[in-house]
Amino acid sequence: MAKQINDFQDGDHFKIFALVKDAQVRTTQKGANYLALTFGDQSGEIAGNLWDVTDQQIQDFQSGVVVQVEGQRTSYQGRPQVSITAVRLATVDEPHQPELYVERAPETEDQIKGALRPFVMAIKEPTWRQIVNHLLAKHGETFFQSPAAKTNHHAFVGGLSYHTLSILRLSQSVIQQYPGINESLLYAGALLHDLGKTVELSGAVGTQYTIPGKLLGHISLIDGEICAACQELGIDYESETVVLLRHMVLSHHGLLEYGSPVRPELLEAEVLHHLDELDASIMMMQSALSKVSPGEFTDRLFALDNRSFYQPDENKKK
Amino acid sequence: MAKQINDFQDGDHFKIFALVKDAQVRTTQKGANYLALTFGDQSGEIAGNLWDVTDQQIQDFQSGVVVQVEGQRTSYQGRPQVSITAVRLATVDEPHQPELYVERAPETEDQIKGALRPFVMAIKEPTWRQIVNHLLAKHGETFFQSPAAKTNHHAFVGGLSYHTLSILRLSQSVIQQYPGINESLLYAGALLHDLGKTVELSGAVGTQYTIPGKLLGHISLIDGEICAACQELGIDYESETVVLLRHMVLSHHGLLEYGSPVRPELLEAEVLHHLDELDASIMMMQSALSKVSPGEFTDRLFALDNRSFYQPDENKKK
Amino acid sequence: MAKQINDFQDGDHFKIFALVKDAQVRTTQKGANYLALTFGDQSGEIAGNLWDVTDQQIQDFQSGVVVQVEGQRTSYQGRPQVSITAVRLATVDEPHQPELYVERAPETEDQIKGALRPFVMAIKEPTWRQIVNHLLAKHGETFFQSPAAKTNHHAFVGGLSYHTLSILRLSQSVIQQYPGINESLLYAGALLHDLGKTVELSGAVGTQYTIPGKLLGHISLIDGEICAACQELGIDYESETVVLLRHMVLSHHGLLEYGSPVRPELLEAEVLHHLDELDASIMMMQSALSKVSPGEFTDRLFALDNRSFYQPDENKKK
Amino acid sequence: MAKQINDFQDGDHFKIFALVKDAQVRTTQKGANYLALTFGDQSGEIAGNLWDVTDQQIQDFQSGVVVQVEGQRTSYQGRPQVSITAVRLATVDEPHQPELYVERAPETEDQIKGALRPFVMAIKEPTWRQIVNHLLAKHGETFFQSPAAKTNHHAFVGGLSYHTLSILRLSQSVIQQYPGINESLLYAGALLHDLGKTVELSGAVGTQYTIPGKLLGHISLIDGEICAACQELGIDYESETVVLLRHMVLSHHGLLEYGSPVRPELLEAEVLHHLDELDASIMMMQSALSKVSPGEFTDRLFALDNRSFYQPDENKKK
Amino acid sequence: MAKQINDFQDGDHFKIFALVKDAQVRTTQKGANYLALTFGDQSGEIAGNLWDVTDQQIQDFQSGVVVQVEGQRTSYQGRPQVSITAVRLATVDEPHQPELYVERAPETEDQIKGALRPFVMAIKEPTWRQIVNHLLAKHGETFFQSPAAKTNHHAFVGGLSYHTLSILRLSQSVIQQYPGINESLLYAGALLHDLGKTVELSGAVGTQYTIPGKLLGHISLIDGEICAACQELGIDYESETVVLLRHMVLSHHGLLEYGSPVRPELLEAEVLHHLDELDASIMMMQSALSKVSPGEFTDRLFALDNRSFYQPDENKKK
Amino acid sequence: MAKQINDFQDGDHFKIFALVKDAQVRTTQKGANYLALTFGDQSGEIAGNLWDVTDQQIQDFQSGVVVQVEGQRTSYQGRPQVSITAVRLATVDEPHQPELYVERAPETEDQIKGALRPFVMAIKEPTWRQIVNHLLAKHGETFFQSPAAKTNHHAFVGGLSYHTLSILRLSQSVIQQYPGINESLLYAGALLHDLGKTVELSGAVGTQYTIPGKLLGHISLIDGEICAACQELGIDYESETVVLLRHMVLSHHGLLEYGSPVRPELLEAEVLHHLDELDASIMMMQSALSKVSPGEFTDRLFALDNRSFYQPDENKKK
Question: Are E188 and E171 in contact (CB under 8 A)?
């Protein structure tokens, strides 16, 4: 398989196909135009500047196209960078489809779909199942494409559904170990908890927050969707049955400071909050640790309170 | 007019009609039953124990009945108390209607209704007006009875609508003074901001939080109602028009720590938040200051960060 | 089986055997002596005052003895209480052994021991296994008796080892679900993380903090024990291998504010912290929820940020 | 009217008169001198570098002079910038007076003075009026020139008096709506609350904090001035009358964390604090929103907790 | 010497002279009047209730009189209490002067005065010395009587001047150890830093906060006094010389949250803040530790963040 | 004596010997290599770039060598910088020893050693003295070389022992002024409190945190060392005697947020914490103030909550 962006070291010469993930026309202090480009493939990203650009190049190399880029890997202020010696658009005979260069969940969409189904069917409370099915049907397509975040954890195609699946798997373990947890409620809450992100985020490529996302947030978005769904389905959205489910999604950030308008006050809501945090933390740490060598610390992870994590020497990893 | 509860001093003998606001059967350390009663009228409240009660008395003197109570005002651990010498149910020939003894807003329901109308009519954006009218119609009756809180500010019959009206009046002043504020949005947001309290609280007498109130809170309750109303009215509840209105109600507590899932990010939302706080603060201070004499400090007010406020000497109040 | 303390309602007459868990000689405001007693069995606790006590009674009814107590259940300031009509020491022919009346872990000591063994054997790193075996041998007896806390979670005989086992079981699920977690390190850390509580707490009955417990805390106690054990075993306690294990125990409270001198900076340390919190939270919620009826909220749980939890109506618990 | 700085877009060529607001001699990494200039007029500011400067240019283009600058508008790291092609001093025949290029309050000094007068006259308490008149006379000139802050809200000529006037107008509305507010105290407090800024800040052009401003702050500065004024006027500065006024100014930041040595404990002090915050917030939001187009968010506003505010689509602004 | 309050144990009978420090008429739940008395002498305090009091007794036993009280020491809810068997006013032939029963500084007023003088004379900057002399002359009498606080540290006659002296002595050590500290500034700041307490507190007996104390606080009180003194002495109170001294007193609480309107920004101000905290902490700990036996913890000390301190076993105290 | 780095002003030409403290190969945006160098001597540091470097130069000018550098002092973004015109390695005939260019404690190693001795001998408790002697012997060499921090206070050769000595001297003053402080405990605690930094930091030149330093921190490192030392010496490390000493070192940061797993609960521990803070603060302020002229503020000091400190005009420093 061809070498990818993260396979190169400082000083290496390379010539690869990659997706232009960001392209900005900038001006040097002295007034010349250049293109500040970000190239990406499934292994990672690298920045590079194209100096003294022509209008044609500005036209060609926009976010979303696939190019062949050639140059040398260097570092600028501690960040890898490519000194571009040549760049051109990929032709139709070459691997030019953008989707080939995008990071994806570790399981395929079909695998995730298949793995989610039994959890939906395990919801025995009919109202909850009806609501879950209604909303999954409404948002299904987006749900399986959407990342779980703009940056941070699960910020890749399918990240949202994969994160949901991981929490459901953890939930299953917890239900088996501790008696007295309402399986239907925990599964229904887990399935819906982040579904509002299909509206909050603009999609898997060049992910941005939408206006409803910024002004309402995914927690109130999904709560509103539940109410509207109930109205459509003829269910009383302020009945205790629905109130329990709404509480699950409203409280899942755990703390008011993190955007939940109420704190968990159900056993299942508290469990969902813990498992959400656990899965997100593991994904972020694994992702960061995969980029460093034994004996090194990762970069500081903003979403984990700016901590950096240590990759122990190989002989410790038994 | 007959003297009321707050007209008496320590040591005074009195005999008044009052509402039983709370009645609890308790046992002394040594095992005898007694009734711990709270009496109230429009002037305030006073506690008193009825010792060695009979089963008939326990039966009779329940929360919500009007009684004639006779006794002496004393103090127990700094709180006024009545040493009961006699108590009996009010007869039908006496002022026995509970509603005579409940604190009320300074304006009548009709006055408040009349004063609110022009503000509703000043909403020129048709979607917002449609939603406001729909929800006021749905909750109208409760809206004009409900207190604005269980304790703290506007905790009296009609408190919710009176608080809403006060904010609207302040809004009008602000709109006149500062150009560029969207009058329709500010009025619509102010009218709806606390409407969820009609569901969150159990009503004006013996106010408690309901289960939906505890598990969801009035902010998400009204947001959910807006979504369901839109669904019913055929309005897209995630259109920018509706999103702006939802943002008004979701953000009105100002800070995540105070239960808003998003902070104000609209000029009108920030103004609403400030006016909500201003009106609530003034009401709490006025209420507390009305109970102390010049030269004294009020009790500590929990909802105002435990501060106590000073009533200056009368000759300072020019 | 005989009825136990929590089987009675207000007004019930009862006559049961129970352990005196606390006995304090007090004086009424007017100067008479009485005994403020707390009775307990495996179902719960109840307080009761013995008025006008004799010196003999003060002598007899001390903390740790088993008595037969007869009386009526009442409530005093919202707390259940017994109006004692008779109390006497249990005889040798009656169930007079204190250990019969103490709350215990849901699994027996042997079951816990048996369940822990495979986890110890799964530690493949020899230094860690050596240290774990050394310290379990040193503290073993206490480890299987000790509660995990003075109050709050797992505050019962065997609570410490049961809590440890629960975390190990959760760890196993997590390891199976996520690749790249060092199983040996996570198990070794989990086994030792709270072992310092054998020194921090005075034991399972009338649990108090010891002086070393108060002045050092269980986190530094176990870290110190690891260092001393290494010194004894000829292991360098500042080698990276041991440093990793020490980091696991030092960081397991997650935040400096909670008494960890360092925050988790290893994947396994972060996972241990989450699972520790998850298990403790579930235990506290389950315990509190078991004491309320459907439709009720629990008392506020101090260790869960003063939240109270809701027990949904029975028909929701499907 | 001539086009001003904020009337140009990226790529536009322009030639305008502007004030040099900041001029710094800098050295490139390779050692050449250049001038980093900031140009300003009543519409806004723009930065630009003058490369390879001569000593004469460094001499000429200092902060405070008016120049004619010609060049092209570009952007550098997201900030507008001018690529200077020519710059020269304005001549006496051209609009060369610095005061023509400075941002000013929306009302003229005379309008503000006229509008303030009735509020001073409405202070009926003679001691307060005497103190207010004394201090306004002492600081008058500066008071009507000074900005209300170095950056943030009302950071323009006359900002301090305009902010004071806005609060007085809001105060008047509040007094009309709520009975029991001491009008004299609220007006006197509002008039003096920020007067210490005349000493804290260096003036309207190139505003800096003075040494007394940094070491004492404007709150203690005005409190000290009140005491000294009383000493001069033969008034007891620790009498209750003066203490009330001092409390108004000392507490107006509301929280100790914001630099008030005491929190508001008078009804009027709490109201002043709220109105101060309200007016400052509105001014900051209006200023930021005036710089963005419908559908955009403003920059993050540091003084409003780093929030950015949304300018709704035009058709929402009805 | 006669035994004092703290010399008695539970169960002891005693008959002593003591000051009535607090006397409140209360009513039992059933309506009888009694006197809740607090007795004090130089060794400590003890509470006791006088049941079924006569009007004459209420008249006689008021705060500030000396009585002979007889009774038995008991405990009520963990606090020592006296079961009063007899109480009468002290006669003129007996030790009836209140000042005999008040806690005092460890050094006499004359010793403290003598020890302070050299520090005043060591102030070489003439303006600072002039201000210090002026204010010490104005408040001298009160300064040597006043406690340093209502409760907490140095809450005894002469506490304020003794605390000031202790800080000066620590200052001298610090000046000797570290070069570059301005001795005049540190001494002048230390002498004035708490002088505002002469106005903030009502005096040494039955210490209360005054109205100016509550509404302004001792920090602003002394700052205002400095300004007024300068006005009287013809010194510019906003000159840098005076600003430095004002900064010393304004910043001495160290943090805005603790009531300083500015944080220390002078070397000497930071040192003063540290020494103020150090002396207050030591005094509080010494006082609390003197009341417990070896092997015990003190009560929780509110002003030390609710910590309790351990008194090690005597043989550890070498 | 030859001029040193901090003796030059902007624009000065200079030619000096200096230590290369940092040397990084970087690439310009356009791809050319250059060396980003930091030069240092006992007066301070200065940065400079060597453009278009040869491989030989990259080889020669590494961190730790002494060079002669010639150039002109300029400023880049407010920081002093040297425009290098020539640089070469120092020869053996020139002052080429790195240790000549390193900042050192104000007293020599021998002076510090001599001054520490009496404090060790003043520890009368034999266990504490034994532990202190054991650990000083073990870490002695490093202890007298190590800085007290990577940056911030005492970040120079010998800083750790000098900081320890300063605290001991302050301790002595405090012990003399306040009775009842356990001299042995305070001295033993002060001597050991920061000794873990010999393991936490990599040494005096190019100071970095070690892996044990990052994962455990110096507080737990020294606590672990005490336990291991006790194990070796046959002392019970959980006896009260040792527990007191361990508490001293564990609690010396004062707050959990600052990394102490327990807060001070001994009089001596609280005193140690205060003196540690006092000495560190004074050192940081003195260092920063020595770099500014009268009338100026220092840079913001991160470790002092980002405050900057004012150097008063010379005529104020009497």
Answer: no
Q: What is the pLDDT of residues E261-307, one digit of tens each?
A: 999 999 999 999 999 999 999 999 999 998 888 999 999 999 999 99
Question: Has residue F113 got a pLDDT over 90?
Answer: yes
Query: Do C170 and C88 reside in the same domain of the chain?
Result: no
Helix residue ranges per DSSP H, F108-262: 109-121, 126-145, 159-177, 183-192, 197-200, 211-233, 240-250
Q: How many domains does chain A have?
A: 2
Asked, for residue A307, whether it belongs to a domain, the answer is no
Which ranges in A6-158 belong to alpha helices (H)? 55-60, 109-121, 126-145
CATH assignment of the domain containing D62: 2.40.50.140
**Residue of chain B with shortest Cα separation from E34:** B76
Residue ending a domain, choose from A101, A123, A157:
A101
CB distance A68 to A2 below 8 Å: no
Residue B315: inside a domain, yes or no? no
Q: Do chains E and B touch (3 or more CB pairs under 8 A)?
A: yes
**Quick one: which of A129, A123, A134, A140 has its CA closest to A233?**
A134
Encode burial over F32-62: b for 16+ CB neighbours within 10 A, e otherwise: ebbbebbbbbebebbebbbeebeeebeebbe
Contact D31 F72 (CB under 8 A): yes
Chain A neighbours (≥3 Cβ pairs under 8 A) are B, C, D, F
**CA–CA separation, C212 and B64 (whole Å):** 57
- Asked whether residue B82 falls in the same domain as residue B121, the answer is no
One domain for residues C279 and C172: yes
Predicted complex ipTM: 0.88
Neighbours of chain F (3+ CB pairs under 8 A): A, C, D, E
Note whether C163 and C235 are same-domain residues: yes
Distance (Å, whole) CA A164 – CA A186? 12
Nearest to C201 by CA among C237, C252, C154, C233: C154
Q: Which of A205, A198, A17 is nearest to A99 (CA)?
A: A205
Pairwise CA distance, residues C146 & A252, whole Å: 34
Residue D315 lies in a domain: no
Burial A286-314 (b: 16+ CB within 10 A, else e): bbbbeeeeeeebbeebeebeebebbbbee
Range(s) of the domain holding residue C54: 5-101
- CB–CB of D31 and F310 under 8 A? no
Measured distance CA(E149)–CA(E198) in Å, rounded: 10
H or E element: which one contains C247?
A: helix C240-250
Do A204 and A220 belong to one domain? yes
For residue B62, being part of any structural domain is answered with yes
HSE-CB for B112 with a 13 A CA cutoff: 24
**Residue D168 and residue D97 share a domain:** no
pLDDT along chain B (318 residues), means of 10: 83 90 79 86 87 88 91 79 91 88 89 97 97 96 90 84 97 96 98 97 84 97 98 97 98 97 98 98 94 91 95 67
* Closest by Cβ to B215, choosing from A221, A258, A262: A262
Residues B165 and B249 in one domain: yes
Contact D123, D245 (CB under 8 A): no
> Tell me, what's the pLDDT at D126?
97
- Give helix F211-233 / helix C211-233 axis angle, nearest 10°: 90
pTM for this model (two decimals): 0.91
Q: What is the pLDDT of residue F314?
A: 60
Residue (of D209, D237, D208, D214) closest to D225 by Cα position: D237
Q: Are residues D93 and D135 in the same domain?
A: no
The pLDDT mean for chain F works out to 91
Contacting C with CB below 8 Å, chain E residues are 49, 51, 72, 74-77, 81, 83, 297, 310
